[in-house]
Amino acid sequence: MALVNPLDPNHDQETKQLAEFFNETLGFCPNSVLTMQHRPAISKAFINLNKAVMANEGGVTSALKRMIAWVSSNATGCRYCQAHAIRAAERYGAEQEQLDNIWEYRTHPAFSEAERAALDFSLAASQVPNAVNAEIKGRLYQHWNEGEIVEMLGVISLFGYLNRWNDSMGTSIEDGAVESADQYLGKHGWEKGKHDGSRY
């Protein structure tokens, strides 16, 4: 039920060049970015922020960043971003057992205590009201340094923007993202919802 139609990928050449980043992460340029092109300053600023947030400068792997994004998107209910995050986690080498059991990250043996601390942080930071507390902080500092915590919160905050953008926009979900979501999330009830490509 798209609120605004995405524009052609060739609409803005600077956005098109920057968006090549997503061919690696997702295998396609997201419709969310194509919709942001209605105001190219937004699409370009978003892609640059995305690239900065997803750069790895510590021990937070690309796969873990995408799992953090999935937990955040799951907390807010954005099915578009859930599908994108699980697809990107898959493409960035998350273990098969982690992909298959992301819903059970708190108890499944495929997840380390460091990963559980990061994912619990994502869940707490994505709730309204915010649930980050001294216990979450203490667990983070057992496994991660301050720079790594900043990287994690960068991912959570980036997806806070994306969750609101895509759920309000009803962004049409791409076939590749649907395939990944069906494979890993479908058994838990994931479906396209408002992102099925129809209009409001």
Automatic annotation (TrEMBL):
Source domain of life: Bacteria
A molecular function GO annotation: peroxiredoxin activity
InterPro entries: AhpD-like (IPR029032), CMD-like (IPR003779)
Domain Carboxymuconolactone decarboxylase-like: 40-120
PANTHER family tied to this protein: CARBOXYMUCONOLACTONE DECARBOXYLASE-LIKE DOMAIN-CONTAINING PROTEIN (PTHR35446:SF2), SI:CH211-175M2.5 (PTHR35446)
Protein's name according to its UniProt entry: Carboxymuconolactone decarboxylase family protein
Biological source species: Flagellimonas alvinocaridis
